[in-house]
Batch of 2 targets.
Target 1
Amino acid sequence: MTVRVAVAGASGYAGGEALRLLLGHPDVEIGALTAGGNAGSALGEHQPHLLPLADRVLAETTPEVLKDHDVVFLALPHGHSAAIAAQLPDDVLVIDCGADHRLNDPTAWDRWYGGEHAGAWPYGLPELPGGRDALVGARRIAVPGCYPTVSSLALAPALAAGLIDPEVVVVAVSGTSGAGKALKPHLLGSEVMGSLSVYGVGGAHRHTPEIAQNLGRAAGRPIAVSFTPVLAPLPRGILATCSAQLTGGGDEVRAAYAKAYEHEPFVHLLPEGRWPTTAAVLGSNAVQLQVTVDPDLDRLIAVGAVDNLTKGTAGAAVQSMNIALGLPETTGLSTVGVAP
Amino acid sequence: MTVRVAVAGASGYAGGEALRLLLGHPDVEIGALTAGGNAGSALGEHQPHLLPLADRVLAETTPEVLKDHDVVFLALPHGHSAAIAAQLPDDVLVIDCGADHRLNDPTAWDRWYGGEHAGAWPYGLPELPGGRDALVGARRIAVPGCYPTVSSLALAPALAAGLIDPEVVVVAVSGTSGAGKALKPHLLGSEVMGSLSVYGVGGAHRHTPEIAQNLGRAAGRPIAVSFTPVLAPLPRGILATCSAQLTGGGDEVRAAYAKAYEHEPFVHLLPEGRWPTTAAVLGSNAVQLQVTVDPDLDRLIAVGAVDNLTKGTAGAAVQSMNIALGLPETTGLSTVGVAP
Amino acid sequence: MTVRVAVAGASGYAGGEALRLLLGHPDVEIGALTAGGNAGSALGEHQPHLLPLADRVLAETTPEVLKDHDVVFLALPHGHSAAIAAQLPDDVLVIDCGADHRLNDPTAWDRWYGGEHAGAWPYGLPELPGGRDALVGARRIAVPGCYPTVSSLALAPALAAGLIDPEVVVVAVSGTSGAGKALKPHLLGSEVMGSLSVYGVGGAHRHTPEIAQNLGRAAGRPIAVSFTPVLAPLPRGILATCSAQLTGGGDEVRAAYAKAYEHEPFVHLLPEGRWPTTAAVLGSNAVQLQVTVDPDLDRLIAVGAVDNLTKGTAGAAVQSMNIALGLPETTGLSTVGVAP
Amino acid sequence: MTVRVAVAGASGYAGGEALRLLLGHPDVEIGALTAGGNAGSALGEHQPHLLPLADRVLAETTPEVLKDHDVVFLALPHGHSAAIAAQLPDDVLVIDCGADHRLNDPTAWDRWYGGEHAGAWPYGLPELPGGRDALVGARRIAVPGCYPTVSSLALAPALAAGLIDPEVVVVAVSGTSGAGKALKPHLLGSEVMGSLSVYGVGGAHRHTPEIAQNLGRAAGRPIAVSFTPVLAPLPRGILATCSAQLTGGGDEVRAAYAKAYEHEPFVHLLPEGRWPTTAAVLGSNAVQLQVTVDPDLDRLIAVGAVDNLTKGTAGAAVQSMNIALGLPETTGLSTVGVAP
């Protein structure tokens, strides 16, 4: 079986990463590549690392160009997916790397993104409780945000097992590619290198309600999430430090994490004493996790690392595609990082 | 008045930064420079940025070499200062950039550093409540650790004003120079660049009891500190994100911070809407702070940035020297960073 | 004597660096700060490292705002200085950090920059033969380009002494701040970090004729310059590797360099066996040089390092101001870098 | 057909990259993993990115452990391969990632490496004239050095076609992983980040005679190579700028390069106007090249980019293995980089 896949937003970072992975997927044929302002130019001008596709010319992002494919990846700015998706046939698998269809709560959408909500789609994080079932046979999938992916996986086992209080603190440090190719002064290399900064502090970051939604689902009750993102000088990678008060002793913590992920191909609880690094997951679909207890505070500390563009975006999209189409879940994906 | 200053450990990062600042201090004459394994070699081989001192030859670190100075900076590995200091005359101002004399509690010393405690000295963080008075006329000063400096300044006003609960969460991201010039695999450039990592998780980092000591002094009661340090790919700078539950509404928060630091020459509460970056304080003695309230959680979030080698180490040493000797506190120090 | 200085283009990198240096200059009072698109906003929004000036509001760049000063620094895009300068009084010292007045040859101007040439001004590189004399008492000064500064100083002694052939090869690696704050995709942090690239290859870079002009002046005959700039992932610093065939043996090389710079406060020929690094000159006005001979090829290799924003731009501007006004040449400038 | 491969030196950078590629090679089964000082520990402690092999324990590097494999990769310090290889059966394919068997000239070996020469092996750069034939059926292969790979490919077509003079200038900028995991002060992250430096200047770098050997073979006469390596702050990647005087006009240059590499799967001459970047080849086996002529100097400028660990070391090793064993040359290798 060969699946024909179109990528809308092929000149951006999410689209480029999707293409990098799809080029290595044995069951995929890459179809239309589209863009907004870059339509008409060769992909090689924007993605020089995708040599086999360098001469492909970008089409305009329209339903007509996209519709005759088995799968359409939408890697568009937030708010642009719903209108396109509505014009694609129901039997086309549409995978939205943007935020449009992640949140269940229209009020939350309006508060953090603004405007009318396009409705939630099956959520592409199969490692959450019940997550995989929702994707089997799906034809519309919302790819999780990068911060929610690692934060949710780092805390869900403890919440699902009732081991921690429903107030969690997440401070996640990220490379710059999560912000996309937008031309903003604070994203210039001269500003980023040699500097650390924060943004979206105090619950203002749009990923806050998405983390809360995931954790609430895992816990079966509302979870209060204090989320602070930090920008650091590297292109890729997120390291999330997550903590919460234990409800009891910490004896069951490690077993709960080990059990939660024992059959997961991409989520790895490291041996005791080793801690995740983003370099170890660069370009891979793996999540590396470690968990410990602060003995003075009876507080759980869970740390996770992902590549924000791979497992944090495009890898999750491919993984979800595999599940939806009944392909082996790991096809075209790797747990081997590119390091050093 | 000219003060003659010796620097022990002149080939390391703390010693080098001390010399960089002392070269710009109008009242200082630089005396003996000493080292351990690097004794006998020229400073220029180790600190090529200190051009005016490039031909100075490093002596062995001995009391004899150091004693005939007005001030001695000790920038030695932890545990090496006490023995040297004990052999220096009482009227020599000894400023220890190491940890030997920071902690009041011998039990804490033994647990986090090991061995017998050498006793606490006046603590070189004048911006803490009562901190400045303890330094006037002092002849022994313990320079704070880099993480405790920024974390304590970010949380002390809220604790002193009773605005937050006595449980705080600090996640601080640091450049690599805080780890010194030790030849360890994880500090190699190839490992550091492109990666984020954690260490000392779960209360294991030695700066945890020092932060708790400072915050306890500010609050007047014990403070539980959850501290997680993150290593990021930049040479200098610490960005600390600190949070805690508010005891009441957040209305008094900003005023408390503004009042705490209104007369401080080096601690700057930024205007609302601007957030600290480490680039803005590179090479300067400034601390940039911002504080906000998460309205959904009634949680205070305070963020601070320092240069770990300047205000976080050698700048604090010079500032403390100035106070101890009755010089204007800001002499030889700057609030202007080197950016971009 | 206090000199009142205005800075036009205060929100850019060259303007910011000029202000950083001027804040430490004991004879300077900082007057008007102007900008183009950023006029009306506070300097602190653009240059958060310049804390003492954070609340200063940027004025529009007009002759009226600038004229009532002793000195005006122009840190404007290329092509914008001439019109402003023409409307400033003759007795105001105008220092142009842009390229408008560097080239003597109108044809070269037209080829590399385009349009009519505004005419050459005294050139702010006092370390070139005859360079200092041209600046004494000057009221119009053209600050050299960053690449020409280090490349010219690295090769001039050998050319002036007739030790090398008139064909030189310069490959210079630079940080990103030399490109300014322009919002271009290839300058985004995500693109820069982890990558090396070339630009302006084959004589296309605008600094090529400026290097040739300087070297021709030193040699007393035309010099053919092969110049290739490389962009590397760091904010500041240029390392230039320069080579040429020796005309004779290499015995006189070191002596020629030592003699050329023996009285220069900012140009340092390193001891044999040590090589320049850009970290050693970060934020300083120093140039570090080393020179050797490839014994198999009878070829001279000279390597120089500068901070492109300091000695490569704003430091040269301050140094030239000092000379022009009769102040000690090193006032407000340092040979001490900020490292690591 | 499944090939059983052992890797000696599995805890280093070259060995780790070999394993990363071999994990993706469909015809390879990974056998023994050995190390020197790290023998006895788990691979996951040293190579956390190689998740599928994390629990494998490293054996001592001995002939006994290595001999029962179809292929042995030696990723050992220079000078250690010959003794091991001499004790491995003749029909085992031994691929040496070190320098021991690269140079034909014992005098050159003694001068640049020291000691007795172990003799040259077939050279693993199939894209050089005649290079592929030498590898078919070989059972001993010397993997080229990283700098020689990109420098030779960038200049060979012009030399083979007689288009340039026999004196070439190569300045190549490299990331830090080429220096390996050696614990040297100048390789610490704090020293590397934010800095550019040179080393091995004036013909002192060991890759100089290897480049000359390759270019001499391509040209059919001796070539004088001026080679200067520059260290830049990134983990991986080499960008080489190479230049030489044209013997005639430059009209034939592009055609010569296009023809030389038209059938090569890994060497890509970019379309005119695009220039290589190291980010575009990160983790891939591709070489990106561009060539132009400086019209004022009649000088050829060729620029190439490779990942020093992939095409520059371990990718070349896998490519050579494929050729030697009669597998399709591109098996297990990619031309798709990991960017941004």
Target 2
Amino acid sequence: MQTRESCLHADRQDPLARLKPLFSLPPGVIYLDGNSLGAMPKTAHARSTQVIAQEWGVGLIRSWNAANWFDLPSRLGNKLGRLIGAGDDEVVVTDTTSLNIFKSLAAALRIQQRAHPERRVIVSERDNFPTDLYMIQGMIDLLQQGYALRLIDSPARLEQAVGEDVAVLLLSHVNYRTGHMHDMAAVTSAAHRHGVLAIWDLAHSVGAVPVDLAGAQADFAVGCTYKYLNGGPGAPAFIWVAPRHRDQFWQPLSGWWGHSRPFDMAADYRPAGGIRRYLCGTQPVVSMALVECGLDIALEADMAQVREKSLALTDLLIALVQARCQGHPLTLITPRDHGVRGSHVSFSHPQGFAVMQALIARGVIGDYREPNLLRFGITPLYLGFADVWDAVEILKDILDTGNWDQPAFHQRTPVT
Amino acid sequence: MQTRESCLHADRQDPLARLKPLFSLPPGVIYLDGNSLGAMPKTAHARSTQVIAQEWGVGLIRSWNAANWFDLPSRLGNKLGRLIGAGDDEVVVTDTTSLNIFKSLAAALRIQQRAHPERRVIVSERDNFPTDLYMIQGMIDLLQQGYALRLIDSPARLEQAVGEDVAVLLLSHVNYRTGHMHDMAAVTSAAHRHGVLAIWDLAHSVGAVPVDLAGAQADFAVGCTYKYLNGGPGAPAFIWVAPRHRDQFWQPLSGWWGHSRPFDMAADYRPAGGIRRYLCGTQPVVSMALVECGLDIALEADMAQVREKSLALTDLLIALVQARCQGHPLTLITPRDHGVRGSHVSFSHPQGFAVMQALIARGVIGDYREPNLLRFGITPLYLGFADVWDAVEILKDILDTGNWDQPAFHQRTPVT
């Protein structure tokens, strides 16, 4: 597409365009950060009013049964499972991605303590999303059983890293910085050949790229609902456990929601059958209920169409930046190969932070990631081809005029 | 108070009566279950609209900074700390009570591994809220280091149970069934005399009874915000760590929110200074934001007045049931002694479940707890003396007429 007119034409042909009106997007904004916090489904406000004013305000404690609050993790989990190749009673929406990593890692290590008791290595990637690494480090420090974390520096090193001393491989399916996507089936198969269990973090893939956990014979998966699933800020995460592993272990965050009969108030923990044993404590109902608004839209979309549009939009973004911003020091770090590309595109720029602030000031909202990365999330449910065209034109203008080099755009908000 | 008129008079004299209009309560309901799910502050709906429609819908990703979402655990924690005798940067609102028990237990055990490496016993009460016991069991099973849980059957056995083999004592300050309240300072002091660290679960006390963690020299505390603090269904919980312990240990649920510089995206975990190291993953912002509505009301109340009214109302409930329901098989299991009574009152009745269903059908909402307990929560912020009078009259009518003995009132909803 070489002109804005051709982009508008593509938007008119887009079978997913019917979904964009289901989201509320502020005027004057091109939102390229839906891979960090997804946009708001228009149903969210009415749903929150229902939960707060009616279910809480009027129903009060009765709503645990009458409004099926207690069942939310399973009901949402079953819906979400359809997006990732999982069956019923294989997914619960609950807690945070970090915590679900802890649960799945504990379970995987316990399984390996029986199968391969001598294995003490957990493998991940150095530029995996940090919380994945931190949770592994926390587990290693807690167990004091001689486990070690082995980090690989490149996806190409994966095969040689999963040797006979490795218990568990924990990877993000799509890398949060580069947008590189692993071949889940191939990597899982390689892991299994070496007796290694595979845990997949789907934070940057669920709702954005096709995922088939059963087909890939994955062991565990976790992910978040507030990115491409548009579940709301900090919305609860999810966990999937392969049915063959599900009943083997009581996971260590064994709170009362995972008990087989929670209201018996028995002193001894007895894990629920099925995936509910991966629940722990009482869940934040309002945030949880909002997840359903985003899920219901995701389930209306055909994933093949989502993938096709995602690749077309990321192709367009890459091509337009190359054509329109040449001469500026932008370096694409996202793979050009469709087979290993997720749904966001990152470019490095020596002044990436300031350039991104200048873009945001002009209404093009992407985000910045260390070091020097401009990151643009492509969300096929509510982004169009002309949006990408307009975003690149604004980027070109900022770079051509040097308008990013203002003191305000260099100022970093300290996070404490 | 022997008449409804005298109750109405007491309501007119009540200095806390000014707070009742701040809550939304459905007409025709006498709500005696605020110790399970607190009532809705009237500000909650407007606050949720602000967070959802404005901060999420319009602000999108920018709200992490612009609306201070990232700071919510600390800001709410500092407010909550004022209710429990804690200073600034000693409390965060985050995750669930169950998870915060896991964090504090891990930290306490780690401290003891240095101070008393041979100790392998964790003490609690058999009728502690089950999730407390389940989390201990999960930790023991995970660590495989020979830890054991010792359960005592009566608070009177406490002193002899905390011997020289005990590492940690984990108690609920107020028992969820009986309403018995421990003397936190005395029990903690006894624990410390034996070299034992004390973790307090404040779920049934925060906002309901005076708590002074610093004065009691407690070691760790956790609790929930959706009971007497009226934070909303399943609202995030909190954790407090004594400043002397706070910087000693990186807790094992070491997600990126607890990192000293989370947005550096470094591969190695380095815990934040202060209580933020007890954070783990991204928090559910909508549910979190609503906690502030309830906290702000709690902070308007004088805790001495709350306690005085709580004792007056529980005294009244006990006296009226004794006077008006005599001849019926109700047995008080809550202590009469003010010094060891929390803010709810429980009676056993051989058909407790059916009696409670009949009460709820008449608009008197308490709850049922195994075995055979009618439990009535007394929330001084929005309950009055005439409410208690009316509730007992309805109870008397149900018992006198035998109206509880209908098939519908015996039917239990299965929880799966």
